[in-house]
Structure formats: structure tokens, C-alpha cells
Amino acid sequence: AVSEKGRMLCFPLSEMKGQAGGRGVIVMGLDEREALVAVTVNDARQFTVSGTGRGGRPVTQTIKGAELDKYLLRRARKGLLLPGKIKPGSVR
Predict the structure, then answer these.
(1) I need a labelling partner for 53 at 20 to 30 A (CA). Which of 38, 66, 83, 89 fits?
(2) 88 φ, ψ to 5°?
């Protein structure tokens, strides 16, 4: 999961619980007026975050290996900031 402020959170899919009756589940803790930009399911141990960097230029960052381990936390936590200045748009 990636927030609009550039924070990323990874957690095992087993932590997602199903809710009946249209009730929601908190994927990631967000600050007030912060939005969740993207969520993806991936077991390849590698994520690519695309967005805009300084000056509005397109930026793509790949997070994998030991660097990815920093973002592995429990569901509903705030996550950690991505390296560099990036305004995320998608995650794969």
C-alpha cells in the first residue's frame, strides 16, 4: 500500500480479514486528509512505485531485497517514507 505523502507499507495477505455487510478494513494508517494512492498484491518480493519527482518529472523506484524488509510491518500501520522525493501514482 502507498499513500499520497510517499509512505509505503507491506504486510502478508493473511493479515487481511474479510468483512460482511459492506464493512471496510483498514489497509494502512493515514494522517488526516491523506489518501491511499495504490494497493497491490505481489509475492515476488519486489515492488515498483511510479509517480512524480521534483520538477514534475516522472520517477520510477524499484524496492526489493533488504530494502523491502524495512517496509514489512503489520497491517494498518503508517508505513515508512519512500527514498527520495516522490509523489506516488501507482505501485506494481
Answers:
(1) 66
(2) -65, 150
pLDDT, tens digit (0-9, with 9 covering 90-100), for 50-60? 999 988 999 99
| Stated pTM of the model | 0.87
Q: Is the dihedral of CA 11, 34, 92, 80 positive or negative?
A: negative
CA 21 centroid distance within chain: 26
Residue 44 identity (one-letter amino acid):
A
3-state secondary structure (DSSP) of residue 29? coil
> What are the DSSP calls for 47-86, one per residue?
EEEEEE-GGG-EEEEEEEHHHHHTTB--TTS--EEPSSS-
Query: Residue 69: how many CA atoms within 13 Å on its side-chain side?
Result: 2
Sheet of 87-91, strand order: 58-64, 46-52, 87-91
